[in-house]
Specification:
Blueprint lengths: L1 E8 L3 H16 L4 E9 L3 H11 L3 E3 L2 H6 L5 E4 L6 H10 L3 E5 L6 H10 L5 E4 L6 H11 L6 E9 L16 H4 L3 H16 L3 E9 L4 E4 L2 E4 L5 E8 L4 E7 L8 E8 L2 E6 L5 E6 L6 E4 L7 H4 L9 H16 L9 H20 L3 E2 L4
Parallel strand pairs: 1-2, 1-4, 2-3, 4-5, 5-6, 7-12
Antiparallel strand pairs: 7-13, 8-11, 8-17, 9-10, 11-12, 13-14, 14-15, 15-16
């Protein structure tokens, strides 16, 4: 099998998730080219070297620019803090590389536009791996087939508690220049992605963003939290449906509560990422909701297990995303969400922030 040279930038949790997914993809999926872990980069050269040895990379470097310039690298995977995404992606695209970048796409709409423009005619993918879940694939196919009738409502919530405790120290995630928006960019981008994927184009939004914990501790005292802890918004879809979304990084008790409901004139679908192998369905005339358990008949589940009920996990979704990337690079699949689709998500997030600041409905055409 021909090899595809992979360059990975970043050695944190997401960097490790990417490395494991690239290693697993060739075993899970029937691929035209096997990923070859060519170069790993991190600002800490010693950490890069140690992680490269553990994860199976051929070489390491403390300079991400050297990774991009390396001839062996054909696709650049970016798993760094948000403020570095644009510079790295633009450099990789200029060097003729394919780019696989974690979300959020950028810290602001201007950089996202620059990335989308540079990516025209190029192969790019953003890290929205929750979209690869078998239950989400089933939900999309059922909606497209008209099983819910005309879609009238979308309800979404993404709640976590990783910053609920005021004692959690200040970090780059609280700095606007480094993270961009807070809960809206970190969690809300996934929820907006679900809304677009399952219901369709968003025409206008209204909403409010707020910061619950205004200051957090640093080694030198207190520092302000410059972005949002929670978001509440209303969406108006092009197909006439309405939506409400609720996003929080300070919701005690929740760990990965990415939950959506799609209601149509014939029924309702409900999904919760904390139970990612299940989809709940109610059709007109039913006595109550039925639970559909993901199985091999719901791609990509069957690539991992031949039996329902054995369950997929987060790492499997990332492996499925890498499989999608590799199929797209081979020309056998249309990559989604690419940078063009990512720009749409960023525009919606920016519109919600503008709506909050100006206290009005904001049409997406304004952005």
């Amino acid at each position: 099998m021909a090899r595809l040279g992979v360059g990975l930038i970043g050695t944190g949790f997401m960097g490790k998730a990417h490395a494991l997914a690239f290693s697993a993809a060739a075993s899970v999926f029937d691929l035209d080219r096997r990923p070859h872990l060519a170069v790993l980069a991190d600002a800490d050269a010693r950490r890069a070297e140690a992680c490269a040895e553990r994860w199976g990379f051929e070489a390491s470097t403390g300079d991400w620019r050297a990774l991009i310039a390396e001839p062996r690298v054909e696709v650049v995977a970016i798993t760094t803090p948000n403020h570095l995404h644009a510079e790295m992606a633009l450099a990789a695209l200029a060097a003729g590389k394919a780019v696989y970048c974690e979300k959020p796409m950028a810290t602001g709409l201007a950089d996202a536009r620059r990335m989308a423009e540079a990516a025209r005619g190029r192969r790019t993918l953003l890290g929205y791996n929750y979209l690869r879940g078998p239950a989400i694939g089933l939900a999309k196919s059922m909606i497209a087939a008209g099983e819910l009738g005309e879609i009238v409502a979308f309800k979404g919530r993404f709640a976590e508690d990783y910053m609920a405790d005021p004692a959690v120290p200040h970090s780059w995630r609280c700095v606007r220049a480094l993270a961009g928006s807070g809960a809206l960019g970190d969690l809300g981008s996934h929820l907006i992605g679900f809304a677009l994927h399952l219901v369709g184009e968003v025409q206008a939004v209204s909403g409010e963003v707020s910061t619950v914990i205004a200051e957090r501790s640093t080694a030198r005292g207190k520092a302000p939290v410059e972005n949002d802890d929670q978001v509440h918004a209303v969406l108006r879809f092009a197909n006439g449906a309405r939506g409400v979304i609720d996003i929080s990084r300070v919701a005690w008790g929740y760990k990965n509560h990415l939950a959506v409901e799609i209601t149509g004139t014939k029924g309702t679908l409900a999904f919760n990422q904390e139970r990612l192998n299940e989809l709940r369905l109610f059709r007109k005339g039913d006595a109550g909701f039925a639970t559909i358990l993901a199985g091999p008949q719901h791609p990509p589940y069957g690539a991992f297990s031949p039996a329902a009920g054995h369950q997929l996990g987060y790492g499997d979704l990332k492996t499925a995303e890498v499989g999608h990337l590799l199929a797209g690079l081979a020309g056998s699949d249309a990559l989604y969400p690419n940078f063009a689709a990512g720009l749409v998500i960023e525009r919606i997030a920016a519109a919600i922030e503008r709506a909050s600041t100006e206290r009005r409905w904001v049409d997406l055409a304004e952005l």
